[in-house]
Design goal:
Blueprint (H helix, E strand, L loop, with lengths): L1 E6 L7 H8 L4 E5 L4 H5 L4 E5 L13 E2 L1 H6 L4 E5 L2 E5 L2 H9 L11 E4 L3 H13 L4 E5 L7 E2 L9 E4 L25 E4 L8 H8 L3 E3 L1 H15 L7 H15 L1 E5 L6 H12 L2 E4 H9 L3 H7 L2 H16 L4 E4 L8 H9 L1 E8 L1 H4 L13 H18 L2 E5 L7 H17 L1
Parallel strand pairs: 1-2, 1-3, 4-6, 7-8, 7-10, 8-9, 10-11, 11-12, 13-15, 13-16, 14-15, 16-17
Antiparallel strand pairs: 3-5, 5-6
Helix pairs in contact: 4-5, 4-7, 7-8, 10-12, 11-12, 12-13
Length: about 425
């Protein structure tokens, strides 16, 4: 039996690593310009289907399950007994994922962005759960739908079902100003790569609850595997698999003031987790073939910030890394948002009193403890705003800092992606 994912471009999909981690199988990512060749000479197969083939694939199916029959969308196909079979696990996964997140008031206003195949699975799930007060908004409006520029400002739940914001176009978002939505309590974005979309970050900045695509991806994978003919996992077991997978795949980014100890702690965490470590200041010096001090002296701060941006962007969209960044990165909003989409941000805060005893050297913008304190006053609020975890370094907790960090990493994963 062969296993895999069919789509037009599935190079950024997490499905392979999820299925191979949870089952003793090889699972292929199959980017197909069309479906014709794949179905011409069928062999035993079990797998998933993604954009843009969730509806198109039905023409090859002999047997479909009741959900597929109703909404004409399939995300699981199998070939056995000389027949193709189609199933939908997106809708049941949405039911299981959203039932504990949606407001108790089932008449609340729900706005759905997008009118593709994913929207159909979402509508099935909402109606199954008893939520019928929804409106669909789209670029290419169908009967009963409204334009994206007419989204109801009294929306309570906003559901994003399009690929907007997905890797590699992670800066995109269909809604530019969530502050206008005064009644909004939940944003659901079904994109799963990056881990946090721009829409999700904007929602979190307004203290709005979010639900991203990762919980759905894992739940539909769990449900899919029974149709693959594989030994199933309980929801509890798969949730633990999800937690461990996220712990391994999310980048961990250290921000903070110079002399806070970011490089040292990042290095220790890299060794403890056996994970690649990138220090952006070291990479800048390697790229420029000179010290940061000399870059400031000969080329100026503006040139340094350009080099810094290039280095950060080189690593920001990758996974499974420990990254320590220069203290000034936090003043670049776009760069911090890019880092946060694939990472847990750790602010290593240091007691200002500890800096008094430091020997200041090789820091272009900081020549004295007074310089440090002046920059600290400007940057500290930014560090706190971007941080998922604030880790406070003091004389008393130096020895236990790494253990404290690992505990907090597990806690934030449970909080953000449970």
């Amino acid at each position: 039996m062969k296993y895999g994912l069919l789509g037009k471009d599935v190079s950024h999909s997490f499905s392979q690593s999820i299925h191979e981690r949870s089952q003793p199988i090889k699972y292929a990512l199959l980017s197909l310009p069309s479906l014709t060749d794949f179905f011409e000479n069928p062999t035993p197969f079990a797998g998933n289907v993604t954009m843009p083939y969730k509806t198109e694939v039905l023409q090859y199916m002999a047997v479909v399950d009741p959900i597929v029959e109703k909404i004409q969308v399939a995300n699981v196909i199998t070939y056995h007994g000389q027949q193709w079979h189609a199933f939908n696990t997106d809708a049941p996964a949405l039911i299981n994922t959203l039932k504990r997140r949606l407001p108790k008031n089932k008449t609340c206003r729900i706005s759905i962005l997008g009118n593709g195949a994913t929207k159909r699975s979402l509508v099935y799930a909402l109606e199954f759960l008893g939520y019928t007060n929804y409106q669909v908004y789209a670029r290419h409006v169908m009967p009963g739908e409204l334009s994206l520029d007419a989204v109801d400002l009294k929306t309570v739940v906003l559901c994003q079902t399009t690929p907007v914001g997905m890797v590699p176009n992670t800066t995109n978002s269909l809604i530019s100003n969530l502050a206008k939505f005064k009644s909004l309590v939940l944003v659901v974005d079904l994109v799963n790569n990056p881990f946090r979309t721009q829409l999700m970050l904007d929602a979190q900045n307004h203290n709005i609850q979010v639900c991203g695509g990762i919980p759905l991806l894992f739940e539909q994978a769990r449900l899919s595997q029974k149709y693959f003919g594989l030994r199933g996992h309980s929801e509890k077991t798969f949730n633990q698999l999800k937690h461990d997978w996220l712990f391994d795949h999310l980048n961990i980014v250290f921000i903070g003031m110079p002399f806070a100890g970011k490089t040292t702690l990042a290095s220790h965490l890299s060794q403890a987790l056996n994970r690649a470590w990138v220090d952006t200041d070291q990479m800048i010096e390697k790229t420029a073939n000179q010290t940061i001090e000399n870059i400031f002296l000969t080329l100026g701060e503006s040139h340094f910030r350009t080099l810094e941006k290039d280095v950060v962007l080189r690593y920001a969209d990758k996974h499974q890394q420990i990254i320590s960044v220069g203290g000034g990165v936090v003043e670049n909003k776009a760069l911090m948002n890019t880092l946060k989409k694939q990472s847990i941000i750790v602010y290593l805060a240091v007691e200002p009193a500890l800096i008094q005893s430091q020997i200041i050297r090789h820091r272009p913008l900081i020549q004295s403890p007074e310089d440090w304190h002046k920059i600290y006053q400007r940057r500290d609020p930014l560090y706190k705003d971007y941080a998922d975890i604030i880790l406070r370094r003091s004389v008393e907790n130096e020895a236990n800092l790494l253990d404290e960090l690992v505990v907090k990493l597990h806690e934030i994963i449970d909080y953000q992606w449970s």
